[in-house]
Amino acid sequence: MVKITVVKTTAPRTRPDQNKLGFGRHFTDHMFIMDYTEGKGWHDARIVPYGPLEMEPACAVLHYGQAVFEGMKAYKSQDGRILLFRPEQNMARLNRSNARLSIPQFDEEFVLEALKQLVLLDRDWIPEAPGTALYLRPFVIGTDNVLGVRASSTYKLMIILSPVGAYYEEGLNPVSIWVEPHYVRAVRGGTGYAKAAGNYAGSLLAQKNAQAKGYSQVLWLDGLERKYVEEVGAMNVFFNIDGELITPDLGDSVLPGITRDSVLQLLKSWNIPAAERRLSVEEIFQAHADGRLVEAFGCGTAAVISPIGKLGWGERDIVINEGRIGEISQRLYDTMTGIQTGRLEDPFGWTVEVEG
Ligand code: PLP
Ligand code: COI
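A: This is the predicted complex of the input protein with pyridoxal-5'-phosphate.
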């Protein structure tokens, strides 16, 4: 195993108020960095004080966006254990994102080990107030100082940590969603299934437009016909039609969410019918008109479950479940967060304890 050198901070930062964290605004005392050089591979794994990076203005990532990232959480259980949720899945997805962006593969076990060491070192930063967690952000950037459009020959893989509260101001209260008729997040053959930084840059304009109309997020449609539902904001999405939980199937334009997969496994264990298939907006609005649209929610690491209370599509606006959180959404939220925080038993073996 490659050794990780550790340089501890001599100037610990002030901890933020646990009840006013927001999302991703505060960072812990340390970060992990590892470099890649062609011919040499990944090297110089180190944990160092959190601080600025030095880079030249020519740095490749600043120009052509060769960057990928992950998002995961560490929780402190009531009996003081530190728990990660299916972290090996994030490592595997980061390597799949790397592959799509022509970034070299890394040793998943080693980076997970580095992540655990970092979390352990900054363990006092894990907030304990309900609904809070330590958000873990691994990411990789191309660092060549060359303006030619080509894959970088040098990279940095880094991990930073941020104590967070709710991702949406609404928390578990249902959000209103705008069906984006024009802009798309991803297309067949594109980078939608990867957590590529550029996917998020491309989503900002539609997000801003939706907010100007009074909605909080965008419902993305497929890039070819703009008829079929793909994702909601930066989350996967489920619709409960007549008691069946339907989520878009995974093509290469949908991010394979770890929360999505966990929701599907939970539904199966509860004998609740679920389907992964193409779902058109028309079908959703028709189901609502027929009184068969029971509930809808987005799901992802940041918000866990985010109920959808209202859906706007052109001139049409529908209210789902009278704008209240649905029964299955609530049950999923309680069970997911229960398992993640160690409050509930974990029959799936999803949680991984970080032991010092
Ligand atoms: N879809 C997009 C575009 C995302 O950015 C995320 C968040 O990571 C998700 C879905 C949900 O994925 P996960 O459940 O793995 O967090
Ligand atoms: C998620 O974790 O659900 C996200 O979408 C993360 C976001 C900050 C990109």
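The domain at 5-164 is CATH 3.30.470.10 (D-amino Acid Aminotransferase; Chain A, domain 1). Residues 13 and 185 are 37 Å apart (CA to CA).
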